Amino acid sequence: MGRTLEIGRTLGHYRLLERIGAGGMGEVWRARDERLERDVALKVLLPGTIANEAARKRFRREALALSKLNHPGIATIFDFDSEDGHDFLVMEYVSGMMLGAHHDEGALPEMEVVRLGLQLAEGLAAAHAEGIIHRDLKPANVRLTADGRLKILDFGLAHLAQAAGSLEPTRSQSMTEPGVLLGTLSYMAPEQVRGEKVDARTDLWAAGLVLYELATGKPGYGDRETAPLLHAILNDPLVAPRKANPLLSTALEAILLKCVEKDPAKRYAAARELAEDLQRLRGGLSVAAERARTHTRRMRRLALAGPVAVVLVLVALTALDVGGLRTRLFAPAPIRSIAVLPLANLSGDPAQEYFADGMTEQLINDLGQVGSLRIISRTSTMQYKGTKKGLKAIARELGVDGIVEGSVVRSGDRVRITAQLIRANEDRQLWADTFERELRDVLVMQGEIAQAIVGQVRAKLTADQATRLADARQVNPEAQEAYLKARYYWNLMTDESTRQAIAYAKKAVAIDPDFGPGHMVLAQAYAQMGTLGFDFAAPKEYLPKAKAEALKALALDPGCVDAYDALYNVFIGYEYDLQAADSLLDRALAMHPNSALLLVDREQLCLVLGRYDEAIQAITRAVDLDPLEPFVRANLVGTYVFARKYDRAVAVAEEVLRRDPNFWITHWTLGSAFEGLGRFDDAIREHERAIALSGGNLNPKSSLGHAYAVAGRRSDALRVLREFDELAKTRFVPAHCRAPVYAGLGDWDQAFLWLDRALEERSGVISWLPTDPTYDSVRSDPRYRALMSHVRFPSG
Q1: What is the pTM of this model?
Q2: 480 or 179: which carries more pLDDT confidence?
Q3: Contact call for residues 14 and 33 (beta carbons, < 8 A)
Q4: Which of 164, 361, 402, 639 satisfies CB 3.0 to 4.6 Å to 338 for a cystine?
């Protein structure tokens, strides 16, 4: 083949550029697709690989089936064709280094292994969902791109090779059959070696060996001759990962060993389960593999003690519970994390949905005050409203031990709530009860439900927490009604719904001026209208109102968690008092440790102050509490941008966009990450997507103008400035939108002119100047120091 193929030759409309490898099926070339003007990888098959035309047609069908795999972690197959006796497969060309070269210098850090393992598991899960098994997964078939993204190559090619020679490729072939090479022996699972049927768990064996190699710096079964290698795969356990690398955690060791169980039934049942365990490990949570391993070891120890000894111990424990030993030995694992699912509206009136949603949110807020519990935020649990998904699946997705679900019935001035607590892993009810009160006592009833749940899980309460749960006042039913509607519209987060929220909140406080939650919603709505979100008018028009309402809310009810958030936005985005914001968040998070919203505030304040490690800790905790909310994950991307960890920001953004591809803030922050890497075309593309998805927010347009400028597209940057001028004729355009564009153009006179105007408008962008990458080059400028004289920083 080497004599007949050379650089410059064309096969079909593909021009060969360079020979980049060879394998069991033939040669691999980088080629140029002359029609679509892109580089591709051509796998030119060995002569005789495809025996006849029937096998060729079968190969084409199989290739087309594989081409339908669409996942960022899998290299795509584009085409299959033949010319002049050469059969060739056209694939996505992936630049970067093979994963096998990634650990030449030894083991990788554990969190890097977890990051790559998560991407590997997600790619496998996407393929397995389509019924496609890799069959030849190994480090050489996994490429690491320049931006840290993992790509699986040659997906299903072993199956294609089999299809070329046989019309019934239902089982893997033994490596001892002459002329058959359907996998790499060092990474083959025992069932694959024995020629038995393979499934998704076969790929998980190979994935476990790949990750073992990354985690220890050593191949799982080493370099052995064929016969000893076959014997080891079938009979010998791997060297324990922590023996090969003592720095590994017991959790990662358990995950790796579960992947390489010789009995497929003992491995992860699906790649998604492996991904879930890796995700939990990354978030600092317990993993299923480690819990199962601990349980198995405990059972073995009991078995080794002997049947007679066990019986004697059980009899003794039954007769006498000395020191609570019996209770501790047989008690199930405690529930320390809870998700409150949306309470069902059983009133028979769809218009009462806002009431059921409000009751759900209040229960979450009450439980969220308990620091010894992890309570999932409303924005994640509300995504399960009306779902038919099983409780076990929901618990796995949210990483919780317990689920609270129930219903609300409102009839006139009476409210009845039925709630139950479920142990998630067993889908077993632990507690259920029904509570009924008059509407004016609804907050008292909510506190009773929260106290009952806390009692059932035996969570530890501080004296302050116990007091707050028990200290609920009666409410005016009409004011409560107006508040719940205001809250409902506020949560929709659109321009029009924000105005409706203000109208209902004003009605609530008009009915009862001492109703704290009504003032809280007003504070939040005013703060949103005056910050970087909606830009209804200059911040000075709304943020003083937000401060007044927040202070009223907290004076009336110190438990109004969102009032703290509104006040924080005033401090950082209007008064530029970062010291006051810091002190406020300390107090607020002590009262509401499960508030993802306040943790996002903490992350943003740490970014402004350059405390990047603290910012990452805060936003990681927020993601743990609100795992399905795209806004929180988009903030994680922004955190890495401000920390100048642009590669990490890109990797996280790509993960977020796989779940929520249309969330504009993620595209916006991803654009900033690309800009930090000097990938200006990619940055411009992401900012344009953010503009299209944002519904009129001007911030991504400002970033687009800056990207144009630093990319050398001066005329496009000036066009953005002209567009701002035109928009200003019909709506408010914040001054801070123009400054980055001028900064990108290097026109610092104009940039500081518009920053001075932003100061006049009391724009929150002033607080962000100390760490915003846009202004890295001018912090020694006297005009920058003049702006910073208006900001009060914490002491030290």
Answers
A1: 0.60
A2: 480
A3: yes
A4: 402
